[in-house]
Amino acid sequence: xxxxxxxxxxxxxxxxxxxxxxxxxxxxxxxxxxxxxxxxxxxxxxxxxxxxxxxxxxxxxxxxxxxxxxxxxxxxxxxxxxxxxxxxxxxxxxxxxxxxxxxxxxxxxxxxxxxxxxxxxxxxxxxxxxxxxxxxxxxxxxxxxxxxxxxxxxxxxxxxxxxxxxxxxxxxxxxxxxxxxxxxxxxxxxxxxxxxxxxxxxxxxxxxxxxxxxxxxxxxxxxxxxxxxxxxxxxxxxxxxxxxxxxxxxxxxxxxxxxxxxxxxxxxxxxxxxxxxxxxxxxxxxxxxxxxxxxxxxxxxxxxxxxxxxxxxxxxxxxxxxxxxxxxxxxxxxxxxxxxxxxxxxxxxxxxxxxxxxxxxxxxxxxxxxxxxxxxxxxxxxxxxxxxxxxxxxxxxxxxxxxxxxxxxxxxxxxxxxxxxxxxxxxxxxxxxxxxxxxxxxxxxxxxxxxxxxxxxxxxxxxxxx
Length: 466
What we know:
It is a multi-pass membrane protein. InterPro entries: AA/rel_permease1. The protein is mainly alpha-helical. The protein is globular and about 60 Å long. 71% of the residues lie in helices and 0% in strands. The two termini are 40 Å apart. The mean pLDDT is 84. It has one domain (4-461): Amino acid/polyamine transporter I (Up-down Bundle).
């Protein structure tokens, strides 16, 4: 039976990172990165504004599509359990140039998502400690401080990261499942028929589906810590699929519960309630619950930041180890055995991305910005897997094999991602702040187009030098 170290050597690498994660910890990292509280609380008001209570059905559509993507990712992680996931898979399925392009896009995408999570976390931190939401430059400073705190946690090594992430899982359970069930069972104000009420049009539902994509990203975090997971070939695929399914169920449960417990759905649909979750919880449980509830939400955001920053650092580490990025990013801290240099650099990149959020009404832009690149990466990876299957370049040989269902699942996942990637990238004024300039409405398109052009230019120039 092959050991983890032996399998890693067969893939071309020596063990450098500390292999100290079990299946639950790897699952927890995936859950913390997907984060039902982070995903749902950020998009609830936008979904209600765009499509009324019926926006919840778009959550189900997004979850179904992402479950198919997670299954494809799980099969790949089973055969190639190595840090840097998508880059490594693309290199083996298609070739080095496609892999490099995928890796650069992936790095940019997760950096954008990290900036988005920090931006969305700042108001909750302000409410917890000062009773008021930070605005403008203050919000940017709070967001940057959260990134720095997450880096401090990650710098101490995988054991400290695991502790924070597990605390986040407890907070997620309370903040989603416990609160959701309590609202549903004891504080229902609306009839179930309201779930079919809509305040939007067909176009609004497409915009809602684009926003819902944010709620189901991050499961690939489990794949990026494969070199730190014991029994990675079997445990990482389990963590990927379980994290997606568990988070999906929790998100839909809480979304339905908060909607049915809301006293004024008309105000939600008119956009008069910027944060519908907190008032609903406080009205139901009482004023005493304000601080505990805010503490739970802040804990989940911190765990999400730690998890996302940790796996982003592993992505950069994986690219630098193959000399696709500066070699110093592949350095591993001798004390904590983590890629601290890589995590520091990508955190600085995320800090720069926060500048898009200087406008207080830029939440929709930030969510689109953070979601768009991740779906581009999903599309590149699933396209590579489909190409390799159809051409016979890849016959899955890991512990998880889809066998005859592999190609149909892969094909449907590709179709879903092609549609949703275009849907997310489509510039929409309703997702930007009121009166936003054109550059902000088109931010997701031009930023990732610029990254793609830059990546292609670097690849072409390196090919000519060789």
